[in-house]
Description:
Blueprint: H1 3-44, H2 63-70, E1 83-87, E2 91-96, E3 101-111, E4 117-121, E5 127-133, E6 139-141, E7 148-149, E8 153-154, E9 160-167, E10 174-181, E11 187-195, E12 204-215, H3 221-226, E13 229-234, E14 239-243, E15 247-252, E16 256-262, E17 266-272, E18 279-285, E19 292-304, E20 309-320, H4 323-327, H5 347-363, H6 369-383, H7 385-412, H8 416-430, H9 438-457, E21 479-485, E22 489-492, H10 494-509, H11 519-531, H12 533-536, H13 541-565, H14 568-580, H15 587-609
Antiparallel strand pairs: 1-2, 2-3, 3-4, 5-6, 5-12, 7-9, 8-9, 9-10, 10-11, 11-20, 12-19, 13-14, 13-16, 15-18, 16-17, 17-20, 18-19, 21-22
Amino acid sequence: MDRNSVIGFVLLGALLIGYIFWNQHSTTEARLEKARQDSIANLNKPKDQQVSTDTASSPVLDSARLSSEYGSFAAAAAGTEQTQVLENEVFRIVFTNKGGEPKTIELKDFKTSEGKPLFLQAGSFNRTGLKIPLQNNQTLHTSDVYFTAGNIQQGGDGSKTISYRLNTDQPGQYLEYTYAIKPGSYLVDFTINLVGLQNTLPKGNISLQWNSQADRQEHDMKQERLNNQVHYRFADKEHDYFTLQNRSQEKLERPVQWVSFKQQFFNITMLARKENFASAEINTKVPESGNIVGQNMTTLAIPYNGAAAYSFPMEVYYGPNHYKTLKAMDIELEKIIPLGTGIFAFVKYVNKWIIIPVFNFLGGLTSNYGLIILLLTIFIRLIIAPFTYQSYVSAAKMKVLKPELDELRKKHGDDQQAFGMEQMKLFRSAGVNPLGGCLPALLQLPILVAMYSFFPSSIELRQESFLWAKDLSTYDSIYNFGFTIPLYGDHISLFTILMTITSLILAFYNRGMTDQSNPVMKYMPYVFPVMLLGIFNSMAAALTYYYFLSNVISIALQWVIQTFIIDHDKIHAKIQANKLKPAKTSKWGERLAEMQKRQQEMQKQQSKKK
Length: 610
């Protein structure tokens, strides 16, 4: 027998042995599960019909052990899963009697990036239930037991209600979950009722375990994870949040009004209405691979007062991160939408008070979002038109003064301090503000940053196509490389290319507004757009399209203003007339001149000492 034959027989023997062990293990598990079900069925029978079992000689699960694990809820340890559906115009929720909780939640008006139905909740990881303390330091998770389902009740206002009850072995004692939905609403009224359990449950906080998994919904998984966050609001209205990392934990040790598990465009929020959650502990995880964006495991403390009949009303929001919808809830849930954060947090007011109202108004006129962005761009350019005109006038004045500035630069050579003093004198005599071109640009910065926050966060743009862009909420791609180029990406965004080209053209037009003698100031306007090419390549197409339009309008306005509106000869004559007037120096100008004079004297003294 050759070497290969020996190896083959050894491998076959190993596979046979492995199969035998696996088969025995599966058979044992099946037998134990059957014995467990028989024990549960036996426990549910009247006592005079129960069959006794010999636990000393049999591994089956007996009634005593079942009672130990499930306490007075042992009768609910086994059952057959049954589902019922509550739905309205915006979502469809499938409830299950196992745990008495939602099993799947589908949003009817939305699809995934692949065109499939969009589920905010689906899969065994998702569960919402109480953790009830039992004897012997055991804990019952209500998601693991079977409830008794009630019939769906129809309300006169179009609402629908369903309840799930978990009975104990004592009459009149039960835990009940009640769910109600209203027409056209993303909210679910969720009430926990504890009846006759004052001797079973200790007075104090009861843990509500809420596990939720965010599955991939969008085209760009990276952006989804960057926007996967947990937000929360304390009872004193303080709001905070964190972005999901590989593993993160947050303990909220004071009353909490709501906790929101936010995806890029959707969220699930647990909201306490009449009485706040006593505290919360949030644990999150980001799986390293797969289509899971993030996982949230939150324990909410419900303050149980020990009453014989106790209710804790809540609301659960399953829906989109739509600013107007969230704001209408009047709990500041709209703060989960990133309209301005960090050092630019102030731009959220530009978005709230200007951009969003105008965007919504234009959305009522047309459904073409490419046209809406164009009209929005024109509106913004009209707002900043006075500042734009002022910057062009300043550029024209600097162009008129350029020959004199060149003479001063040639006269003083490397003595920048002397040149600076003479330059300031020239500006004062000519009535030119050297910051006239910079200030308008700085005033435009908040709007540029506001757009940077608004477009990637606007769910209205999700899956809206325009020209070659299939989805304005993510990057447009005209070619995919199949590999990743460092600092650039794995695709070519045409809107980003057009934005960069027009930025370079605009920099060329504005070269007269910068100090051409300074290499940094001279070349930075050309280098900066190229540096940003890799960053914006993965940005939302709506954003790069807006910047492209803004550049095109700026180029057109500059050409029109400088060609037909600004009279360079008139500006030159006015500057010459200003030179003949007595110079008026402001206090700030006097202090600046005095400081420059002192510095010049100090340099002369130091040169003499040398």
